[in-house]
Design goal:
alpha+beta; three-stranded antiparallel β-sheet; 3 helices; 3 strands; globular
Length: 56
């Protein structure tokens, strides 16, 4: 079964930005994400749609 989420580090790599920039955009709601306890996860389908320009 394929994972349904990305980590912030994985998203930073995809976008070609630093880990700090990616965390900032996640916290600010720019990148679609969910907070699970102390951990941020980025739903794969929502991120892929956001990246393609379809919004969150």
């Amino acid at each position: 079964m394929e994972r349904q989420t990305y980590t912030v580090d994985e998203v930073a790599g995809v976008l070609g930005v630093s880990r700090g920039v990616a965390y900032g955009q996640v916290r600010d709601g720019v990148i679609p994400s969910l907070r699970l306890g102390k951990r941020w996860v980025i739903p794969r389908a929502r991120f892929d749609a956001w990246l393609a320009g379809g919004g969150a």
